[in-house]
């Protein structure tokens, strides 16, 4: 693939680029932000008895309305995304996918127009195989037709699932759809599940994945539970050496949706998901009911300081650097560093944690400006490297900080040094 717009933008900005080239469609220069229906609304097609929660055009229109009215759009959440169960069970006479006529009487083009009229973007879902995971028509044999249909409808993002295809054909299928989207001439953000479906047979080629996809799911579906969040974090940390170098402007690892604002996580656990998704430079795709969300969850999801970490222009994904109290660190633009300390023990009260146990704290010699963002915002001010700063971390919660060295160059001293980074990866 030729060096395109993205390469140019990065060169101009003088930023560090990940080794592999990103999909050259000019999209996802920062992790995607928006809303996706799956975890909260799954495959509820029962609009007769449950019209408020069924998968219908009404759901996306209402979500878009709230996103504009309640500050979500202003906070950066932009994409309103349809997941599985939107189509009719059969294609039309021309072989094109069509929305279920009862649940989407206006059709997808009209829905896209509505979403665009709100200044937002519309995402849609399809599958590389014979059927979608929920059994609706898949795109196998129809990649070009479906890509063109989505372009004609003015859709802005495609989530492409990987059910019902022989795993040895997964890579080829995802690449073909990427090419088909490119051929339409419309920039459509391409969200893949390629590595998730390929891992059972071999280690996926992340250089290729980054060239063809804007983000990619690596691991199982998120559920509304702490055990699910923990398993995603554990998988990510234990594969960071393979997956972290692939992330950067234009292409991101996708640990799946934010489930903040639902039923299964305590507030501390919701803070942990938000903090760690920011450290992982993850797409922030909420799956919750924005029409009815508790104020604390809303405040957390709209926290500008956490969103700024997630959207940081340096575009480097963070790493887990210490296990026990898990420490995760992410280098930020302007020689700053984000640090998340997560306390996994589910017994007892808050744990005291000395900041000197964070490997990156060494950049704070002689001094750093320290801001605590979670569990509560607190300016901790100028802290000297010598004097011990002790933090408090709640069980299953996360203490999130940014540190800014008052002299010295973080990238030179710490993260730009390959051997230092390698050392972190194997820790
Ligand atoms: C798979 C995907 C989920 C969701 C469902 C829909 O399980 O990983 O994110 O799209 O299919 O059926």
Describe this structure in words.
With about 425 residues, this protein is of the alpha/beta class. It folds into two domains: about 35-310, Alpha-Beta Barrel (TIM Barrel), CATH 3.20.20; about 320-405, Golgi alpha-mannosidase II (Immunoglobulin-like, Sandwich). It contains 16 helices and 16 strands. It has helices at about 5-15, 40, 55-70, 70-75, 105-115, 145-150, 170-185, 195-200, 205-210, 225-240, 240-245, 265-280, 295-300, 305-310, 410-415, 420-425; strands spanning about 35, 80, 120-125, 155-160, 190, 215, 250-255, 285, 320, 325-330, 335-345, 350-355, 365-375, 380-385, 390-395, 400-405. An eight-stranded parallel beta sheet has the order 7-6-5-4-3-2-1-8. The protein has a six-stranded antiparallel beta sheet with strand order 9-10-11-16-13-14. Strand 3 (about 120-125), helix 6 and strand 4 form a beta-alpha-beta unit. Helix 3 (about 55-70) packs parallel to helix 5, helix 6 (about 145-150) crosses helix 7 and helix 12 packs parallel to helix 14. The model is unreliable at about 1-15 and about 415-425 (pLDDT under 50). The protein binds alpha-D-galactopyranose.
> Which homologous superfamily in CATH is the superfamily of the largest domain?
Aldolase class I
Ligand kinds: alpha-D-galactopyranose
Indicate the CATH topology of the largest domain: TIM Barrel
Beta content comes to 15-25%
The total tally of domains equals 2
Family: Belongs to the glycosyl hydrolase 27 family.
Subunit structure: Homodimer.
GO biological process, one term: glycoside catabolic process
Organism: Oryzias melastigma
């Amino acid at each position: 693939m030729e060096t395109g717009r993205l390469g140019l933008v990065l060169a101009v900005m003088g930023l560090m680029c990940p080794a592999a080239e990103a999909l050259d469609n000019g999209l996802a220069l920062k992790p995607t932000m928006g809303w996706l229906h799956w975890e909260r609304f799954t495959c509820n097609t029962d609009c007769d008895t449950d019209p408020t929660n069924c998968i219908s055009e009404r759901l996306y229109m209402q979500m878009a309305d709230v996103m504009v009215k309640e500050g979500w759009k202003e906070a950066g959440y932009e994409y309103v995304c349809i997941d599985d169960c939107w189509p009719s069970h059969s294609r039309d006479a021309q072989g094109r996918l069509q929305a279920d006529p009862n649940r989407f009487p206006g059709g997808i083009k009209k829905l896209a127009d509505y979403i665009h009229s709100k200044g937002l973007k519309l995402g849609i879902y399809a599958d590389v195989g014979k059927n979608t995971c929920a059994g609706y028509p898949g795109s196998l044999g129809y990649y070009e037709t479906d890509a063109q249909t989505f372009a004609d409808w003015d859709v802005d993002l495609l989530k492409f699932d990987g059910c019902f295809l022989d795993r040895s054909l997964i890579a080829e299928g995802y690449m073909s759809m990427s090419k088909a989207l490119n051929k339409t001439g419309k920039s459509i953000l391409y969200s893949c599940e390629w590595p998730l479906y390929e891992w059972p047979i071999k280690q996926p080629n992340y250089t290729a994945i980054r060239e063809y996809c804007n983000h990619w799911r690596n691991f199982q579906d998120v559920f509304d539970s702490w055990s699910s969040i923990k398993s995603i974090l554990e998988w990510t940390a234990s594969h960071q050496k393979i997956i972290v170098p692939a992330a950067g402007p234009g292409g991101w690892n996708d640990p799946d949706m934010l489930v903040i604002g639902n039923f299964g996580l305590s507030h501390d656990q919701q803070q942990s998901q938000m903090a760690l998704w920011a450290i992982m430079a993850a797409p922030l795709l909420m799956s919750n009911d924005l029409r009815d969300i508790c104020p604390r969850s809303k405040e957390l999801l709209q926290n500008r300081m956490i969103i700024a970490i997630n959207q940081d222009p340096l575009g480097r994904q963070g790493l887990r650097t210490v296990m026990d109290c898990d420490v995760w660190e992410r280098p930020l633009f302007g020689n700053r560093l984000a640090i998340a300390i997560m306390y996994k023990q589910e017994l007892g009260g808050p744990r005291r944690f000395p900041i000197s146990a964070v490997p990156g704290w060494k950049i704070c010699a002689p001094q750093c400006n320290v801001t605590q963002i979670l569990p509560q915002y607190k300016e901790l001010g100028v802290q000297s490297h010598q004097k011990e700063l002790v933090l408090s971390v709640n069980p299953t919660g996360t203490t999130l900080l940014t540190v800014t060295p008052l002299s010295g160059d973080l990238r030179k001293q710490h993260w730009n040094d390959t051997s230092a980074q390698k050392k972190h990866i194997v820790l």
